[in-house]
Amino acid sequence: MLLKAKKLLLIFFALCKVPGYIVKFNRNSIQKIFFEVETEKVKTQKIELPIKKIIELVRMLVLCFQFSKNCFLRAYVSYKVLADLGIKSNFYVGVNADKSFKSHAWIQIGEKLVLESPNKINNLAIIFTNNK
Question: DSSP assignment of the chain, as one string?
Fold first, then answer.
């Protein structure tokens, strides 16, 4: 019971930071955001957390606070919340310049996509990642 309460508190406090991350995203350039993601050190924790549920909550909060489905914003805020929870994730931005320019941002944990369809990223050339 104590572990479950600890998990819920960790998730709650991490999600409380979402509005601040949205403001930070809106005030900074893409270069600053890339630099922040690239240089961030994540202190990993051994607690098992419901990652998909956390990302769903992050997406819902981003939609409520920003009224946006912007994938770059969602991926950035998701990355920051997971980092706050001690979960190492990789941030990606890809582009497809076939007939019309398209871009997409997403996060992965290891090689596993988090709430993303592989079809959405298959034809993208990665232009940024913190996965070194």
Answer: -HHHHHHHHHHHHHHTTHHHHHHHHHHS-HHHHHHHHHHPPP--------HHHHHHHHHHHHHHHH----HHHHHHHHHHHHHHTT---EEEEEEE-SSS-EEEEEEEETTEESS--HHHHTTPEEEEES--
